[in-house]
Amino acid sequence: MVGVRYILPYIRRHKAKLLLSILCFVVANFAALLSPYVLGRGIDAVTRHAPMGTLALIGVFLLLATLLEGVFRFGARYLGTGNARDIEYELRNDLFRAYQRQDASFFQTFRTGDLMARATNDLNAVQRSLGAGFSNLANTVIALITTVLAMLSIDVKLAILSILILPFTSVKMASAGRAIQRRFEKVQERFADISTKVQENASGIRVVKAYAQEDLEAEDFAHVNQNYMDASIAQLRIQSLLWPAMYVVGGAATVVVLYVGGMDVISGHITVGQLVQFLAYVAALRWPMVSLGWVVNLVQQGTASMIRLQRILTRAPAIQDSPDAVRVVRLRGEVEFRHVSLSYDGAEVLHDINFHIPAGATYALVGPTGSGKSSIASLIPRIWDPTSGQVLIDGIDVRLIPLAVLRRSVGYVPQETFLFSERIRDNIAYGVGDVPDERIEWAARISQLERDVEQFPHGYDTYLGERGVTLSGGQKQRTGIARAIIKDPSILILDDALSSVDTYTEDQILEGLRGVMETRTSLIIAHRISTVQHADHILVIDDGRIMEQGTHEELVRLGGMYASMYRRQLLAEEMSVADLEEDVEVGTSGDGDQRAE
Fold first, then answer.
1. Where would a tag sit more exposed on the chain, N or C end, judged by fewer CB atoms within 10 A?
2. What is the pLDDT of residues 110-136, one digit of tens each?
3. What's the topology of domain 335-560?
4. What is the pTM of this model?
């Protein structure tokens, strides 16, 4: 099976502990055979009226056999379960690394709740199949071999009867294995739906409350939860029918052995003690036979989960280092787009983009929402790869630059700044490791975050809530800017990174960044003309094409799309100023009236 084949490398790395566990099971099962043997000898001794000393000695042997079995059975299960936990630990680390190396398209394909379900429920199912499943499988196989040999040594006829009846329990469970696997996969999918629903509601609780949708969301969750319960009951329906059937078969085997064995005792073929010993072996075999079916169930669940994990672990990211990657340590920052086009799901969003940014220059992208500005920016650090054409840095195709070098050389502030539930200083220094406090404070000063941080109860050591919920939108963006410039990147990309700050703060940030941008290539994406008017060169993007380009003055004189945007924004600012002056005049008049009264 695919899932079992994929787990084998993990098992091989822990084969020493695995073999030791099997050895413990061998000793434990041989010890388990001693107890019925000693018990049978004891009963025969009683029927012969043996002295009390003999009976006491038999009791001591019985106690020692039980103790020996218990010690080695504990050792076997301890080693087996520990081995499964070790493999689970490695699998969880590998799964997380697989998440980390995937490209942006992966996270658009898989839902967050589904990824969480694979890292929790599916891993637990694999661990159970390797822990309890393997331990019981090893114990069952060893117990079957040793017990059947012991039964054959007592009475071949009775042994054959037992062997013919008892396997029906395992056959019944094995026949239901595929149905169990299919239904368990459905259970895991429904659990992923629950995880997704909870995750989305926890993240978007402000929107839910703002639109008073609590009751509707609760109803939707109840529907998803009902689907999960239905899938779980469908799986449990098979299991619940199997267990009684297995015990009925085991009871039938006991009745047959008791009847046939009783006749052998009457005929003198075997002794009463041997019959009791044989019945004890039959009873001892019932659990391994039942366990074998249970193991099949666990293995089917583990296999279903391992297949789901394998789809992630073996998925090659669309964006990764090329085998022909060039050796480069640091990039200067010269950027060039040559006939670049980009498509998402078959829809082309960029059409034949061509421009060149000299190292150290500041370029800007403006245009309406959805025009393709962010798509252009995302191609530089290889968040996406172009469908056709080339993106070059320092004359090298970005696909030939090692990802670690490329992304270390790019400081990227996306439209939506994501902050972690850590201290402010950790969020600023994310990606650069330990840096001096002076460096963190410098980055915060440039991004105009310093004064805000001083008002926090613990300054830079203040812990943020989930996704930085304790900060405003503007504070998040300024933290993102500080995070980008503290990397000392060769290329700085600000993707609408000043949209949540007021114009006064924007001017201060741009003034602080001016010194930073003098020594590096900068690409600024914005909707406000005031943000980009001092750039060395401006590209006007619409419908995935470069419509106009030039300096601010050149584009205004051109009288095209950029000039139209500029005039609209100037008019909006004049109207805002007029409204403000009117409010001031009304307020002054009111005060005068009050004073006159």
1. C
2. 887 788 888 888 888 888 888 888 888
3. Rossmann fold (3.40.50)
4. 0.73
